[in-house]
Amino acid sequence: MHKKTLLALLCLDLSAHASFAQVQIEPVYSIWDVNLGETVSQVRDADVGEIACGTDGGPPGQTLASFADFMNCVPESSGLREVEFNYDDEQDYIAKALESEFKVLQGGTSVYAHPVTVSLLVDPAGVVQGRRIVTDNRTSDLVRRTAFTLIRNFKAQYSNWSLSCADIPMEEGEQPVGKQFIHELCIGQSPDGRTLIATEASYLRKRGQRAINQETQEVNTGYFESQTRYEEVLSPYTPTTAP
After folding, report:
1. Sign of CA dihedral 92, 94, 95, 100
2. The pTM is what?
3. How far apart are CA 48 and CA 232, in angstroms?
4. Nearest-CA neighbor of 113 among 145, 141, 140, 150?
5. Whether the Cβ atoms of residue 34 and residue 70 lie closer than 8 Å to each other
6. How large is the greatest C-alpha to C-alpha distance in the chain, in angstroms?
7. What average pLDDT does range 41-67 have in this prediction?
8. DSSP 19-57
């Protein structure tokens, strides 16, 4: 069905329900659908959008035609290769259009309504050993300011994993944003001991990120870090965010 036709039908359907604010557009395939310990071939290329080598939360690296091309990515120090993907572009298109129309839906590649980059960590045999989620910095400052709050959702999601959380002290050159300085790291293990997770949140100014331009005395926009990182790996691998 043509995208515009499908969108029109969805809009009519939503308009017919007073409770349309409860409607959600779910991706065809998400990062949570991946089964760790299975081969990367479990993910059908047609169920996702673009596939590329991951850059640890940064913009996509080398474009891949298929998940089967994971060996084209440079291995990390663990030996695992990061393969990034975004959610099906048609779902993304519909979700964004509906959000624009009704101001109630969050589409795109997101987790708990936060825009994110998602990727798989694949060993040389093609087995998915982990998944990585990092809030996407390629958003507006208004959206980015709340990125650090995503850790709250992960802490609730894994509350039965006996998470151990600690505040990381301010390093030399770092500063709070206003009166807030947040740098927290949580580490946990699945009840069966098979899987390890680490999630880290930061809301701070890095060295050189001044609130006020020293020359013009104007406010510097965007000069702050607000991010949440999540990594889940099968033992004996350890999350890269863990100390």
Report:
1. positive
2. 0.81
3. 21
4. 150
5. no
6. 57
7. 95
8. TGGG-----SS-GGG--TTSBGGGS-GGGEEEEEE--TT
pLDDT given for residue 224 in this prediction: 84
Of 173, 234, 225, which Cα lies nearest the Cα of 200?
225
Long-range contacts of 207-214, Cβ-Cβ distance < 8 Å, separation of 24 or more: 207/172, 207/173, 207/174, 208/173, 209/175, 211/175, 211/177
pLDDT at residue 198 is higher than 50: yes
Q: Are 87 and 27 in contact (CB under 8 A)?
A: yes
Instruction: Assess contact for 154 and 182: CB atoms under 8 A.
Output: no
For residue 148, what pLDDT band results from cuts at 50, 70 and 90?
Answer: very high
Q: Residues 185-206, buried b or exposed e (16+ Cβ, 10 A)?
A: bbbbbbeeeebbbbbbbbbbbe
What is the model's pLDDT at position 141? 86
**Neighbouring C-alpha atoms within 13 Å toward the C-beta of 198:** 15
pLDDT at 8 over 60: no
For residues 72 and 164, give the distance between their C-alpha atoms in angstroms, rounded to a whole number. Answer: 36
Confidence of residue 203 (pLDDT cuts 50, 70, 90): very high
Q: Please report the beta strands in 54-140, taking only residues with DSSP state E, as ranges in sequence order.
A: 63-64, 81-87, 110-111, 114-122, 128-135
Query: Amino acid identity of 223?
Result: Y
Are 56 and 67 within 8 A, CB to CB? no
Domain residue spans of the chain? 1-134, 139-243
Q: Quick one: DSSP state of residue 148? A: G
Strand 63-64 versus strand 110-111 pairing type: unpaired
Query: Residue 49: which of 78, 19, 8, 85 has the closest Cα?
Result: 85
